Structures are given as structure tokens and as C-alpha cells.
Amino acid sequence: MTRYALLILVDHRQQAAVNVQKTLTAWGCIIKARLGLHEGVLEHCSDTGLIFCELTGDEEKREELTRKLNLIKGVKAEHVPLTVEE
């Protein structure tokens, strides 16, 4: 069985977050699960975040989503196939 993970590193969250959110929303049909993490304590939030997604859909769509995210300044995205031998 193969599952697909998308890892997104967002630097300068305050500037990039809106465009990242718009892109993920536009491609929401191929996002099965999503988890966003950043370091934050009370009033202080880190300006860097990490988003994990599980993707569905075909390879072409997964690659296009990754490409669009990488066009956003301060964003690095990679999608990774994960396979478990049966």
C-alpha cells in the first residue's frame, strides 16, 4: 500500500500564510488530512511553521499542488510516497 505525504515548511508565516491557505483550500479535494505546527508561547509565535498533509488523487495533481506551493516566497514543499511492504 502506498500513501502520500506532503511536507510544507513556511518561513515568514505572516507574509506567506494567506497564500499558502488559499492554495491548500483550492486543492482541498486531494488533501485527506492536514496538521499545522509552529512554536508559540502565549503572545510570541514563531515566524516559521511546518504543515503535514496526507494526499490522495493522481500523481499529476500532487505534483501540481507541490509546484504551486513552491512558487510562494518563503515556502518549501515536497511530496513523498510512503510504501509498506505487505
Description:
By secondary structure, this protein is of the alpha+beta class. The chain is built from 2 helices and 4 strands, in the order βαββαβ. The chain has a single domain (2-83), classed as ACT-like. Chain A, domain 2 (Alpha-Beta Plaits, 2-Layer Sandwich). It has helices spanning 13-26, 59-70, and strands at 2-10, 31-41, 44-55, 75-83. It has a 4-stranded antiparallel sheet with strand order 2-3-1-4, covered by helices on one side. The radius of gyration is 14 Å and the shape is globular.
Give structural attributes.
alpha+beta, Alpha-Beta Plaits, 86 residues, globular, 2 helices, single chain, 4-stranded antiparallel β-sheet
- How many runs of DSSP E, i.e. beta strands? 4
CATH topology: Alpha-Beta Plaits
Radius of gyration, in Å, reads: 14 Å
N→C terminal distance? 8 Å
- Biggest sheet: strand arrangement: 2-3-1-4
Layout: helices, strands, pairs:
Elements: E1 2-10, H1 13-26, E2 31-41, E3 44-55, H2 59-70, E4 75-83
Antiparallel strand pairs: 1-3, 1-4, 2-3
How do you describe this structure in short?
The chain is an alpha+beta fold.
